Amino acid sequence: MLQPTPPVPQPLENMGQAIPRYEATAKVTGQPLYAADEPIARPLYAFFKTSGVARGTIASLDVRKAEAMPGVMKVYTHRNAPPRKAVKHIMTGGYMSDTNIPLADNRVRHDGDIVAMVVADSYEIARDAANRIEVRYAAQAPAATFGSPGAVKKVPEQAQKNAKKAGDFAAGWSRAPVKVDARYSTPTQHHNPIELYATTAVWNGDQLTFYEPSQFVYSTANGLAEQIGVDPAKVHLVNPYVGGGFGGKGILTQRTALVALAARDLGRPVKLVLHRKQAYGLTTYRAETRQRVRLGADRNGKLVAFAHDGEEVTSRADDYMVGGVENTVEMYACPNIATSVTLVKADRNTPGFMRSPPETPYMFGLESAMDELAVALNMDPVELRRINDTQKSPISGAPYTSRSLMQCYDQAAAAFGWSRRNPRPLSMSQGDWLIGWGCATATYPTNMMASTARIRLTADGKAVVEVAAHDMGQGAYTAMQQIAAKRLGLDPRQVTVRMGDSALPPGPVAGGSMTTASAGSAVHTAAGKIAARFGGAMPAPNDLDDAFRRLGVTQIEEYAEWWPPGQGPQAVRALYKGSMGGGGGEEGEQQEGNAGGGKPMMAAFGAEFVEVRIHRLTREIRVPRMTGAFAAGHIVNPRTARSQYLGGMIWGMASALLEATEVDAKRARYVNDNIAEYLVAVNADVPQVDVILVPEVDTKVNPLGVKGIGELANVGTAAAIANAVYHATGKRIRDLPITMDKLLV
Amino acid sequence: MRPFTYERPKAIAEAVSMARSEGAGHVNAPVQYLGGGTTLLDLMKLDVMQPTRLVDISRLDDRLLRGVSRNREGLRIGALSSMAELADNGMLARDYPVLQQSLWLAASQQLRNMARVGGNVLQRTRCPYFRDTSYSECNKRIPGSGCAAMDGVNRLHAVLGVSDKCIAAYPGDWAQGLAALDAVVEVLGPGGARSVPFGELHRPPGETPHIETSLQPGELITGFVVPGEPWPRSLYRKVRDRESYAFANASAAVALRMRGDVAEDIRIGLGGVATTPWRARTAEGMLRGKPLTEAAIRAAAEAEFAQARPREHNRFKVALGPATITRALLEAKAMEV
Lengths: 745, 337
What we know:
The structure holds two protein chains of two kinds. Chain A is an alpha+beta fold. Helices cover 26% and strands 23% of the residues of chain A. Chain A is globular and about 75 Å long. Chain A starts with 23 loop residues before the first helix and ends with a helix. By secondary structure, chain B is an alpha+beta fold. Chain B is 26% helix and 20% strand. Chain B is built from twelve helices and twelve strands. Chain B has helices at 12-18, 40-45, 83-87, 90-95, 97-104, 109-114, 117-120, 128-131, 174-180, 281-287, 294-304, 317-333, and strands at 5-7, 31-34, 53-56, 68-71, 74-78, 184-189, 192-197, 220-227, 234-239, 250-259, 262-271, 278-279. In chain B, the strands form three sheets. In chain B, strands 4-5-8-6-7 form a five-stranded antiparallel beta sheet. Chain B has a four-stranded antiparallel beta sheet with strand order 9-10-11-12, sandwiched between helices. In chain B, helix 5 runs antiparallel to helix 9 and helix 11 runs antiparallel to helix 12. The relative contact order of chain B is 0.14. The A-B interface holds A 50-52, 124, 127-128, 131, 277, 432, 615, 617-620, 622, 657-658, 662-664, 666-667, 671-673, 676-677, 679, 681-685, 739-741, 744-745 and B 1-3, 45, 47, 126, 128-129, 132-136, 148, 151-153, 155-156, 239-247, 249-250, 315-316, 319-320, 323-324, 326-327. Chain B: InterPro entries: CO_DH_flav_C, CO_DH_flav_C_dom_sf, Diverse_Substr_Oxidored, FAD-bd_PCMH, FAD-bd_PCMH-like_sf, FAD-bd_PCMH_sub1, FAD-bd_PCMH_sub2, Mopterin_DH_FAD-bd. Chain B: It comes from Phenylobacterium deserti. Chain B: Pfam families: CO_deh_flav_C, FAD_binding_5.
């Protein structure tokens, strides 16, 4: 039954070479230095003491035992912590993931808030000392989540601004002969990258160098400079590799300034590695959502009304909003549409971006409801999507630059064997295992932001590409290498790529799936400028030496700035400041693929099919196979693209069945804050995943014809699994994750 | 982790004399034996356990502590055998599959390489309120402080053997098989050697959840004896959210001796649902000497859970437990031996 997919897919139409990953050999031989690996002379080690309550004040704080320990240099508390400037949240034009400034006063605002920082000669001493700090709290009852006493609803301005509407939903809904009106919910989730969150700060005079995993080095460095009142030119962030980010390392957290200021105060480098459990309260997470989906259709399955309403949890401090209803209502043709998003403010740290922030929760709602509608219509769910497929926005009427959703469905359905499905629930089984098949749509908007790049070509035919973009494992080094090599007419192996360093020309955030489209376009442009030096056509590599001689130079260096259509040079100026964009605040909003107002619609699509098996007695849910087909414009490298899709579908499966941060409703605390109890998929959960790359040509999105893929494949999986669980059992589970307890009752 | 004294004795007698100490129950004694360290070192790093002295027995090369042997009395397993070593033991897989499978399905290969089967039966609960010292309420950590799990997140907590003081589940797998097969625990302590029936090793929480076993400070488990004939018709069924490397939501260690359809002897140990390794004697009593039909098993399994006391999030275990017993017994009955 196990048939491994060929690891190196053949390039099809409009795909680049499937060359091996740029840093593959380095990684499998353990060479890359991640942030906390950086060898530093005589560092001190910091460890946080974090709060045991989610809301209250510190009634007493006794640090004497910690201070008395040999090797402890200093214990920082709210009584002696260095002041930091208040910097705005990322969504309101600032840099911070959470504007609550720890150790600024004696208040505790969420679980795991910092109440003290020990700096000592060793990690072990710092941690032991932190354990010996005695804190008593004057605790108040916290609001944990939806429905908690004290949680406050708020409709932020942005939600009102972004709300989408077409026709008259109420009228369409009242006339619809077939209706689905269902409520869905998705859980709190944490990124849990294997590389822990770490910061090392080294001062050299008034110059600060720091090492920290970052998905946006310019933003992290500029934000830190502002927070500690230092000229940004004197702050240097080095981070060539990120050991998994998923959005959690995209935005500056409050820990960094504490470490930097302690290093300055103590006159020695300071290194901090957050304990895994501390990351739950001190970085961001995917907030839980509650949704209501109303779908109305005529008897032929044509949608006539669609309303998607969401509620999301955020902190008291910040109005972080996901707002995926703006994207779900663009999925299918429908004349009458309405959306709303309401925030629920609770005593929590501020949530943030996590892989496909809007689509992951909200497409679960929509694609589950589409399946419910197919059942209500007694119609094949693939046909329901076909009937409602569209090539233009149902809101603005603007056309999609390209949209190959049904090609994805047809190829995936054929590979999966969908035609052999008996649509009746409980109709397929093998021994004691109930079998269910389900499918769902995946989508991700094509986001872009400005980028710069610098390329140096030497007469020996070697090129160095420099751009402060980021590789979290997604294949960005390889993509930049291939894009430059193609335009320069070089073998990719002759191209060196340098990224992840704020001393390099700025690149985009590694978020919103826009690195290849954005940084790739800048690299392509810089390479084009080099080609222009030779009159537009690159000489063959063997002729380069002569060509350089004719020009009278030994090397050519070109710097390029690129911005997406509709933006201008101010977008590059904003990029140099590490701003998320010239205008919008949210990740990926700079050139929002699904923005209305007649702008072209730009998005990648996919279709995912899964088989679930559920034991008739114990109700364990297993997923023996998944098939996904995806179309995303030009594919730079089919090998790394396939890897992204594999990882995405596996993540999506885990998100459907396993991943949830348990929040103690009484205490507003994260309970399973470790990766023994916070479950992600292991190899045994993933017997077979098949990926189909569907060729697609898009000449409009950007010069490369590239759409983003990193956040595409995990989007449809949860709904596909929920739909398969319904098919297997006849039970519709609308609350993720789908665990055996929900099938046993 | 707090500083401690590390001792490496050369012989068992020396180890036992080093480990002599005071304390209420074994797990809170200031002196602890160090075997694989997979629970102890973890809890020391978390500051949950704060022993002042560790006696490292992991390198003792005493025959008493090592290997698997069989004689007329039954099977004997040395306490310092690693979980991995026994999981790979072909004789166990053939003659005592329940024991081999319980090890194979536990933890990860890396942990099985380190952990020793003697220490494994003393593995401490995964209750998150116990494992995190920032919670002020935990009767197991701080006697009399309360129990946060009662009104907290308790999906993975116990429904059997619970008390008003504690609902923490026993997390291990290996112990279920030993409980089912009436194993005897060999113990060496400052007062000499003694044998403890496996069912008396773990103490239900009652009023004193901080006292988890009947071992006294300084006592060392040296081995386990499984008396009588082999149990080739036996298996360990572990039901969990994730396919591998996860604790049981419910598990059943079952062993049968069949004559036709009739269960002449039947043993059921339960994990994931109880505060201690749980022997399902009610269900066994209803099924012993009876034809093993699905309906009969289901009724007996539900009777076992009539005494269950679920909380808000672990109510499903009252259904999952009987389902797990039913599945395990039907699968054991169908085994070809």
